[in-house]
Amino acid sequence: MSTDVDLDGEYIPSSLEWVRDQVETYERTGGREANTLRDTGIPVIIVTMRGKASGAVRKIALMRVEHDGEYALVASMGGAPRNPGWYHNLVADPVNVMIQDGPEPFAVTVREVAGDERAAWWERAVAVFPTYAEYEAKTDRVIPVLVASPR
Questions:
Q1: What CA–CA distance (Å, rounded) separates 66 from 106?
Q2: Is the pLDDT score of 50 beyond 70?
Q3: pLDDT band for position 3 (50/70/90)?
């Protein structure tokens, strides 16, 4: 797999303390700690990208929805009426992205999916994290699903 990504430069941690702490602990321990969403027991991955507006490196923890080596990145934002900021970052720069699912991060290319492909990934995502269905019910927007493929 290629690691040809441009993620040098300033890192701006999340403004949410629990997200900052989770990312830091996950990375420091190679995914042995802080590898689930709080106390749910549901696994997470760390996604590293470049901020669209700031140009800085950004990192988030997302639910681990993996299938055949690819990962769904569900832009649910808890069912809010707008997409999360990280969604716009990934759409703006889908190639300078890393995922960490265990000890070592790896380069991915991200693409948004639609139609039957989105439906299949959505079903997988809800199977991992049933709360996504609740988020979908409380918003008028179609929650974007992006697929990250290792390079």
A1: 14
A2: yes
A3: low
Q: What is the Cα–Cα distance from 12 to 89, expressed in whole angstroms?
A: 13
Write out the two tokens for 25: 């602990």
3-state secondary structure of 5: coil
C-alpha R_g of the chain? 14
Superfamily of domain 17-150: Electron Transport, Fmn-binding Protein; Chain A (2.30.110.10)
Q: Kindly give the residue spans of alpha helices, DSSP state H, lying in the chain.
A: 17-28, 85-92, 115-128, 131-137
| pLDDT over 80 (residue 1) | no
Distances (CA, A) of 80 to 52, 125, 135: 20, 18, 8
Residue type, 20: R
Averaged pLDDT of the chain: 95
* 3-state DSSP assignment of residue 9: coil
Token reading at 92: 């703006």
DSSP labels, 45-78:
EEEEEE-TTT-SEEEEEEE-EEETTEEEEE--GG
